[in-house]
UniProtKB/TrEMBL annotation:
GO terms for biological process: cysteine biosynthetic process from serine. GO terms for cellular component: cytoplasm. It comes from the Bacteria. GO terms for molecular function: serine O-acetyltransferase activity. SUPFAM superfamilies: Trimeric LpxA-like enzymes (SSF51161). Keywords: Acyltransferase, Amino-acid biosynthesis, Cysteine biosynthesis, Transferase. This is Serine acetyltransferase. NCBIfam families: cysE (TIGR01172), EPS_EpsC (NF041874). It is an enzyme of class 2 (transferase). Its EC number is 2.3.1.30.
Amino acid sequence: MLGIREDIRNAQLRDPAARGALEVWLTYSTLHAVWGHRWHHWLWRRGLRFAARAGSQWMRFMTGVEIHPGATIGRRLLIDHGMGVVIGETAVVGDDCLIYHQVTLGGTSSGAGRRHPVLGDRITVGAGAKILGPIVLGDDVKVGANAVVVRDAPAGVTLVGVPASVARSGSIEYQI
């Protein structure tokens, strides 16, 4: 129950459209997707793989957010306008991350092992961004809308473009 309360409070703090705890609890389908993922991840880790996958596909149908039950999600993940978000099986998302709609944390191979990205804490991923492969983004990274990230990035940078690179003008980094 603590995680649910924490998630509701986080949504109220970070989303200016959140009007109250009851509204967030009842209408934020992206939180429902995260809460469903917690249950499906619990099943996955106990070897109940079919039940976990079936449940995650039902949650995808209901919310438009696909989080593989094998993915590891940190505390206070906020997915804003989450339709079309895909988080792959071996992805890791740190604490206090913000992900917008149409984001993919995807793999680039079908081999065994880690195929999906690792996101540090306090990362913001803009709408439509694709973060692909077994790469690592450090803490406090910002990924611009529609960027395609295919390489590791150190903490605190802003990534934009296709393929994404650190946003700089002279020696000043732009913040989005």
